[in-house]
Specification:
Layout: H1 2-26, E1 31-35, E2 50-54, E3 63-69, E4 81-87, E5 95-105, E6 112-119, E7 129-135, E8 141-145, E9 153-158, E10 171-179, E11 187-198
Antiparallel strand pairs: 1-11, 2-5, 3-4, 4-11, 5-10, 6-9, 6-11, 7-8, 7-10
Length: 200
């Protein structure tokens, strides 16, 4: 009888532990931080290169300059963000921005792209930018980010918004685009930090 009772108690304890452990594991948020820029240097957290790009490097009336800024979106005093000084005020068709390699990252465990963004009040800034995500076909899948302010804002974009992505098992590139259509004012500065893939 004592043996049976102890067995029942052990079984009950096991079931109770399962009921406590399983839900927390099942609902735990998952996130892959692609780039927090906290080293103040390249590469990103998954080994990918990044930088500013210009439609026409020979046209000095337009361009994006990238630099590291000691202004962390999550408040880390030792952290950095990316500063993007853009200029699309050109007599020629103008677009440029920021690119970052994703190195074929498998995103199938996630469903949302997230990052933080803010504008520089002193330099001025566009309230909207075009974001592009690419898989290995390299076809850009665009999304317009709006509502940029002077304060850090978390942007969360469900994968379903990137309609041209056909292979989530192998992502190639994250791109921010400033252009003479969406960018107003046509010169300014925004900051970007903590780019991540999330299972929100």
């Amino acid at each position: 009888m004592k043996l049976k009772l102890s067995s029942l108690l052990l079984a009950f304890a096991f079931l109770m532990s399962m009921s406590v452990v399983l839900p927390s594991g099942a609902f735990a948020a998952k996130e892959l931080v692609v780039a927090d820029f906290d080293t103040g240097d390249k590469p990103n957290n998954i080994g990918g290169d990044f930088g500013g790009w210009d439609k026409d490097p020979n046209d000095d009336t337009q361009g994006t300059q990238m630099s590291f800024e000691p202004d962390d979106a999550l408040g880390d005093p030792a952290g950095y963000a990316i500063r993007l000084d853009y200029d699309v005020d050109s007599p020629n068709p103008a677009y440029n921005g920021f690119w970052m390699k994703l190195n074929g990252e498998d995103a199938t465990a996630y469903n949302t792209l997230t990052f933080y963004v803010k504008g520089d009040a002193g330099a001025g800034f566009t309230k909207r930018v075009k974001l592009e995500l690419k898989d290995m076909t390299n076809k850009p899948s665009p999304y317009i980010v709006t509502g940029i302010t002077e304060q850090w804002k978390k942007v969360s974009i469900p994968f379903e918004k990137f309609r041209r992505i056909t292979d989530w098992k192998s992502l190639n590139e994250f791109v921010i685009v400033f252009d003479d259509i969406n960018s107003s004012p046509k010169t300014g500065t925004i900051f970007v930090d903590h780019v991540a893939l999330s299972a929100e």
